[in-house]
Automatic annotation (TrEMBL):
Region called Disordered, residue ranges: 221-247
Organism: Streptomyces violarus
Keyword line: GTP-binding, Hydrolase, Metal-binding, Nickel, Nucleotide-binding, Zinc
Protein name (Swiss-Prot/TrEMBL): Hydrogenase nickel incorporation protein HypB
Residue ranges crossing the lipid bilayer per the database entry: none
Top-level taxon: Bacteria
């Protein structure tokens, strides 16, 4: 019975991988980079994403965002304050996004000329980690209130990240957060991955995060995580950056 369940799971993931690979190629032809944001609920990723989108809009960058939740359109309303095009995707109980869902929204909704699409995945560090969405960049976020050992508890998520962002760093002191221990744990599951520090309340890290994302959009190589679902390599026609995320 276990073998049968495992076989079904592998078949589902294989189908998703195939769809994701095709979507990645299609998006590359259209000059669109997808940024897949993963975190637990309460990490502050919606607030941080809203700040990044607002900064991109201020700079006249062609960005859009797709946010996923089991229910409500609250996050879409929050993100729309940035001025960027935003779409809510309701999963009706599904704990993660899949490539087929993203493809449907890319085909039916993505504004013409968009070169950067942020996807805020369902708040969950388990299921979403196994599903490739055809993204150019996978970012895993974690708040200082979640504990230094979280990368060790969720190695698939952190081990598949091209970039890790620590959020709510203004609370590190009150939370007794050991930043050095956290950084060491991240490196244990994903050697060489870059770690960024952010605080949406003060805008710390917002510009740095946006620059990292733009660098990948413009063709910079990305870090190769040990547990990436599939290689994420492509190039776009954008020019003007020499920054990279490769290690």
């Amino acid at each position: 019975m276990c073998d049968s369940v495992d076989e079904v799971t592998q078949a589902v993931l294989a189908k998703n991988d195939s769809l994701a690979a095709g979507l990645r190629e299609e998006l590359a032809r259209r000059g669109v980079s997808v940024v897949n944001l993963l975190s637990s609920p309460g990490s502050g990723k919606t607030e941080l994403l809203g700040r990044v989108l607002a900064r991109a809009v201020e700079r006249g960058l062609p960005v859009a965002a797709l946010t996923a939740d089991l229910a409500t359109e609250n996050d879409a309303h929050r993100l729309a304050r940035s001025g960027a095009p935003v779409k809510q995707l309701l999963t009706d109980g599904l704990c993660h996004l899949e490539a087929r869902q993203l493809r449907g929204h890319v085909e039916s909704w993505l504004p013409e000329g968009t070169s950067l699409l942020f996807v805020e995945n369902v708040g969950n560090l388990v299921c979403p980690a196994s599903y490739d969405l055809g993204e150019s960049l996978r970012i895993v976020l974690m708040a200082v209130t979640e504990g230094e050992d979280k990368p060790l508890k969720y190695p698939t998520a952190f081990g598949s990240a091209h970039l890790v962002v620590l959020t709510k760093v203004d609370l590190a002191g009150p939370a007794g957060f050991d930043q050095a221990a956290f950084a060491a744990n991240v490196q244990r599951v994903n050697p060489g991955v870059e770690l960024l520090f952010s605080c949406a309340r003060t805008d710390d890290g917002v510009d740095t995060l946006l620059e990292r994302v733009l660098a990948v959009r413009d063709g910079a190589p990305v870090h190769r995580p040990p547990l990436a679902p599939r290689p994420h390599t492509h190039s776009h026609s954008h020019e003007g950056t020499e920054a990279g995320l490769v290690s």
